[in-house]
Amino acid sequence: MQLILHTFKLKLKHTFTITHESRNVQPTLIVELREGNFRGFGEATETPYYGVTLEKMKAQLEAVRPLIEKYDLKNPEDFWQYISPYLQDDHPFALCALDIAANDLWGKKSGKKLYEAWGLDISKNPITDYTIGIDTVEKMVEKIKEVPFPLYKIKLGTKEDIKIVKELRKHTNAVFRVDANTAWDVEETIQNAVQLKELGVEFIEQPMKADNWEGMKKVYAESVLPIIADESCIVEDDVARCYGFFHGVNVKLMKCGGLTPAKRMIAHAHKVGLKVMVGCMTESNVGCSAIAQLLPLLDYVDMDGILLVEDHISTGITIDYGKVIYAAENGTGANLIG
Ligand SMILES: [Mg+2]
């Protein structure tokens, strides 16, 4: 396989603010694996919060270029086992981009979309939410009016979280889910859950600090809304740790190292009765089209990345009022434009 690295700066439609940071542009790395006329694409984004930069990811991949280029891809799982020991990192974003590219290439070579190759039925796919970042209440209302959607994920973690949700509720009947990105404490979470449930919120994502397991135990027992782990569930081993502390987990491809480990995490979570969501990280259509292949396995999905960026660097899925429509192309359906 030939390895080709591309970098882009995705321009965001709105300044995106969550508890950790605020930004206008999303730098991203697209990994291409080429074999004959087949081209597979994968993606990982620069994420300063985790110390992940384009330069770092490129250096990691350049270091394993000879191992990749001498490899004959038979299936993505074997490739992941082969290459992952060399790309282990607290935040295996480069491994993720490479694994998605390998899956995409394998699907295209097999003449199948990935979900078909995995034997999945897409008839009951969950719809995706549309994320409303933290802003003034007026701007958040504006965004809801600008993008009518059946399901919104509202980023919280301000001094007036309940007020925000009450105000947004006046403007839509859509289902809400909220993400506090670790901003609340135990009592706040338990009390907020009561009010949020009345406001039509279906679950709360990561209300408290990632390592507050003691607090989560209490919240798990007392919250009237399901609690989904995000910052507390990063890699495969975390799924087992979340059992009995959360009602579900949010799996992210970049945090766990790609589609291959994500599929294992989803299977493990369902086996122990945890709900599963997959979340995006403001990817282009390369990353979102990879997430889409997992839809039949998911209870919830947050993959509105392509609706939040201006740049359209790739073909792939489209989203129609929350419903994900697959591309005609095999693999993930993504191809770089130009
Ligand atoms: Mg989150």
TrEMBL record:
Q: Which Pfam families match?
A: MR_MLE_C, MR_MLE_N
Every Mandelate racemase/muconate lactonizing enzyme C-terminal domain range? 137-226
Q: Does the keyword Isomerase apply?
A: yes
Q: How is the cofactor bound?
A: Binds 1 Mg(2+) ion per subunit.
Q: Which InterPro entries match?
A: DgoD-like, Dipeptide_epimerase, Enolase-like_C_sf, Enolase-like_N, Enolase_C-like, Mandelate_racemase_C, Mandelate_racemase_N_dom
Q: Which cofactor does it need?
A: Mg(2+)
Coiled-coil positions:
none
Binding site residues for Mg(2+):
D179, E205, D230
Q: Which GO terms describe its molecular function?
A: magnesium ion binding; racemase and epimerase activity, acting on amino acids and derivatives
Q: Active site located where?
A: K155 (proton acceptor), K252 (proton acceptor)
Q: Which UniProt keywords apply?
A: Isomerase, Magnesium, Metal-binding
Q: Report the EC code(s) recorded for this entry.
A: 5.1.1.-
Similarity-based family: Belongs to the mandelate racemase/muconate lactonizing enzyme family.
Q: What is this protein called?
A: Dipeptide epimerase
| Organism, as annotated | Pseudarcicella hirudinis
